[in-house]
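Hi V.,

You were right to ask for the full record rather than a summary. Here it is.
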Amino acid sequence: MSDITETIAAPPAGEHIKLNIQDILAILPHRYPFLLIDRVVDLERRQRVVAIKNVTFNEPFFQGHFPGVPIMPGVLIIEAIAQAGGALLLTEIPDRENKLMVFTGIERARFRRPVVPGDQLRIEVEVKAWRESAGRNAVRMEGIGYVDSKKVAEAIVTCQLVPRAAGTGSAAVGSSTPEE
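Predicted structure:
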């Protein structure tokens, strides 16, 4: 396993960061069956991230969405966009184990083509605004999902980093959001 803290804190000049599944597990709190990114192929600190989700027939949601016609739910594609953005945001936070990244908004979500078993979903997320205040970070990001270079989904998501409530696993959510 690579040392993600060193990699993110001091990347070589002009070099982009890549994260394997072990690095992602060290950054994101999500686990099976809700971890929706498998690899980060490019990360530019505070700017953009490109992640991959290999979609297989073994995904639990395909049992009911839809029997005989498996289609990845659009809300899970949006969640994958948010998780890719979360990998970008949380790499900047030294005490990330004490924080949660929560949605505060989803705008202009569009679904262009179905994502089905066997597809490789490429998720590209670009930061539009990054705001830090009173120990809370809020980020507005534009995400686009592609399969075979064809756009399958897009959305603008707003997320906020909040402290985990001690001992409960829940989050204390405020109203700070970044502006365009």
